[in-house]
Amino acid sequence: MQGKTLSVFVDESGILNESAVSSRFYILTLVLHDQDHAIDKFAAAFDRDLERIGVSNLCFHGGPLIRMHEGFEFMNWDWRRKIFARMLGFARSVDFKYHCLCVDKKFTNTVGQIIEKLEKQLTDFLVDHQAELAAFKKVKIYYDCGQKPITNLLHGFFEHNVPSVEFAQSVLQRKYRLAQIADLVCTIKLTELKLDANLPLSASEKRFFGGPRDFKRNILKKIKTKEIR
To answer: Cys staple from 142: which of 18, 71, 168, 200, with CB 3.0 to 4.6 Å?
Structure first.
């Protein structure tokens, strides 16, 4: 127990300085993984599943997959839905937990306010799960430094509150399947928040997920078992 290391893979959905009209929600997802629980065999099975449908060397990125952007332009709907389904199946097979920090920019819309809300939620999470986190000798944070205010928040918060913390260097999503799981969780959480707020889904989301009932039964329900509040 004393040598255990907790990996924390961080991904975000939304842009801090965009208005609520173009980017209503800001989500910061933490994927928590005990490094004693190897994922290699599950990742290998996932790669074989992708190869069966003619896909290799895939870096999963949920938003572009749904919208047909950034490398997914030439894949049809059926192909992309199969990729999503296999990614969801892979995530369900891996032993991890996730927690999402969520800010509604309709009510909190400056970068400073958003960071303040995120820090408060991080503090509450750390307090609520102090006993579980204390089982780990070291915590290692994986974040791609995509947005500087988030990088500063993570360094400031974890270095102040966690006795033994390390930040991984040169984090690229394509290198880590757990980082891609964090992206998957962000994608699903964003859709969940939209539905909870009675906001319309985009045409791409409707076509990809089906209606709200299909999304909740076929996708949301399957990942919710991994959530830790």
So the answer is: 168
